[in-house]
Amino acid sequence: MRKDQPHNIPRRHFIGLTTLGAVTAGSFLTNLQAAKRAPIAFNTANLVARVTGYRYQLKNWMDQHAKTAAATDAAAWRAICREIAATGFQAIEVWEAHASPEKLDRTKAREWRKILDDAGLKAVAYAGRLSQQTAEICQVFGISHIDGGLGALSPERATALCKQTGIRCNIENHPEKSADELIRKIGGGNEWLGVCIDTGWLGTQGVSGPDVIKACGSLVRHTHIKDVKTAGAHETCLLGEGVANVQGCLQALRDIKYTGAYSWEDEPEDRNPFESAKRNREWIEGRV
Predict the structure, then answer these.
(1) Could you tell me if 28 and 123 lie in one domain?
(2) What is the span of the domain harbouring residue 176?
(3) pTM score, two decimals?
(4) C-alpha distances in angstroms, 271 versus 17, 55, 210, 225, 248?
(5) Three-state DSSP class for 113?
């Protein structure tokens, strides 16, 4: 018998216990590594076409926004959260239409938050416009930043509102074709105002996503991971199958030491995005 083996435990039992300890330690390390991994989120803007049977045109986005806001009651929100969780996502980016200031006060926002908790989802971002009302919704949801636009606010007024509420804002690229053009819209950026990179829109504009990401550098504080079929249009497709060089964008994010979330975004005009949700989540997981 080995000196370090307890005297009253049979050898086979002792080996089993030590093996179990090794497995438990390995599981702990795996869980610890998973906890440190940047979250991969489902952006609920993916469901822009849900209220019209997954048929709409991009030019009618704001009509879809209004219809979605009107249709999203507690039951609808609960169904959405359950469907997202069923695809394996644990994080979520909440689209403004699903938690709109026109529908949610603080009491209702707490109800929406509980529905998220019940589904095992953590809200990591809010896709929408910066305002006093959206910032208050983020406070209730435990979200630290809004990703979209400044609304009618100048960079100076937006910064003041962010300081007041403790909620940051990252401007998302759509028509912009360079980092300079994007950064100018946030007055050069600061602790409170940064950039949300949408890889799909960079593909649509026909510019190099990796170059824009590297030029924005530390101002990149959130991402919308999307792919599009061709430049000059915004027809979404499976990640890695379009022209946005999403894999190159992910490498560029690593190069700038990006530590934020990766929010999968695909707002198809003619199909249910849940059909590809698991595949795209796993595609991102395999590369970050």
Answers:
(1) no
(2) 38-285
(3) 0.88
(4) 52, 7, 29, 18, 27
(5) helix
